[in-house]
Design goal:
By secondary structure, this protein is an alpha+beta fold. The protein folds into 2 domains: about 5-165, Pnp Oxidase, Chain A (Roll); about 170-205, no CATH class. About 35% of the residues lie in helices and about 30% in strands. The protein has helices at about 5-10, 10-20, 60-65, 115-125, 140-145, 170-185, 190-205; strands at about 25-30, 35-40, 45, 50-55, 70-80, 95-110, 150-165. It has a 7-stranded antiparallel sheet with strand order 2-1-5-6-7-4-3. A hairpin with a 5-residue loop joins strand 1 (about 25-30) and strand 2 (about 35-40). The longest helix has 18 residues, at about 190-205.
């Protein structure tokens, strides 16, 4: 994935809000044979770290025990658009809009029952804040069997790369036209995509004229 400046100039608080809103993320590990593996998991994001759990029989757990370096990725596919919304003849103008954040991480694997119970409570606080469950404790027979089958994963974030591909390489006028077409088309995520394009326009208007430079970059800051 190429990270152009105009796609990666995203405020930290916006990236954090996006990650916190995501319900699941993708863990990428590498097997002993060098084969990438990917899994989709609920998670808790804490700014400098990410928490999730794996089944102790999961092949990705074996990967992390052997090689702690991994990636965690959060994304949102927003929309694909036809070329003629931008140009009446040039098919190259067809494109897709998405928001993606990739975290470079060092994984810690924790299997102590008390640590697992604490982590489950943090995950429940995110996904089930209304309660409706008995607190998870390591010695409760309601939970001890399940706890014995999982491992807590704590991903320490070493770096992150954000790419919000929202038409920033087009003029505000073109983006506004595309946003209008998205709203007219009305697919399930088209309104959200239109709002995202409008966000780029509003942000540029607030910042004033854009600076120079559209070079690729591998890092986000």
């Amino acid at each position: 994935m190429i990270y152009y400046d105009y796609y990666t100039d995203i405020p930290l608080e916006t990236v954090d809000a996006f990650v916190c809103e995501a319900e699941m993320g993708r863990l990428v590990t590498v097997s002993a044979e060098g084969v990438p593996r990917i899994g989709l998991y609920p998670f808790a994001y804490q700014g400098t770290s990410i928490e999730l759990h794996l089944n102790r029989a999961d092949e990705q757990l074996a990967d992390l025990k052997a090689r702690s370096r991994c990636l965690f990725e959060v994304d949102e596919v927003l929309a694909v658009i036809p070329s003629y919304w931008v140009h009446p003849e040039n098919a190259v103008m067809a494109t897709a809009y998405h928001r993606t954040v990739v975290f470079d991480c060092e994984a810690g694997v924790l299997e102590h029952a008390a640590v697992l119970a604490d982590q489950q409570m943090r995950l429940l606080a995110r996904y089930q804040p209304e309660g409706g469950f008995r607190p998870v404790t390591p010695d409760d027979p309601l939970y001890s069997g399940a706890i014995a089958h999982i491992a807590a994963i704590r991903l320490q974030i070493a770096d992150r790369r954000a790419k919000f591909k929202l038409g920033q390489n087009r003029s505000p006028e073109v983006r506004a036209k595309i946003a209008g077409e998205l709203r007219k088309r009305g697919r399930p995520k088209d309104g959200r995509a239109a709002d995202a394009l409008q966000w780029t326009i509003d942000r540029e208007n607030a910042k004033g004229p854009a600076g120079e430079g559209c070079r690729p970059t591998r890092r986000w800051s």
